[in-house]
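Re: beginner question about structure tokens

> Can someone show what the tokenized structure looks like for a real chain? I only ever see the sequence side.

Sure, here's an example I had lying around. Input first:
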Amino acid sequence: MTSALTEADARLVDTYLRHFQTGDHSLLWAFTEVNDITFRFPERGWNITLALIVAAPTDEALNYVVAGPLEEVLEVHGSLLIDRVEGLARADARFKDALSRVACFEDSMPQPIRERILRLKARI
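And the corresponding structure tokens:
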């Protein structure tokens, strides 16, 4: 499901999840950096988000990833990524599970993207 990450991005994924699991405030930088990347760099943010979905060790960690990077990348870059989202939802059970948890608030993403995600979720 994921493209190869740079070594730095792989460390970022690990640290982001460790921050969630431990609550260690010294690791908060990873949360901030992932948020910045998913907002500013759609391709890199998408790859990091997919890696986080794969690496999330618990249901709670997956919820954290969905409510953060996945929803962010869909809200900001959904029009660029929606075809890939639809393909992965059909082909990958883990991604389908993550997508089923996405909150699709009316004001959070463009209406056409929201409608496509809602249609996908209806089939899950």
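Each token stands for a local structural state, so reading them left to right follows the chain. The CA atoms of residues 16 and 30 lie 5 Å apart.
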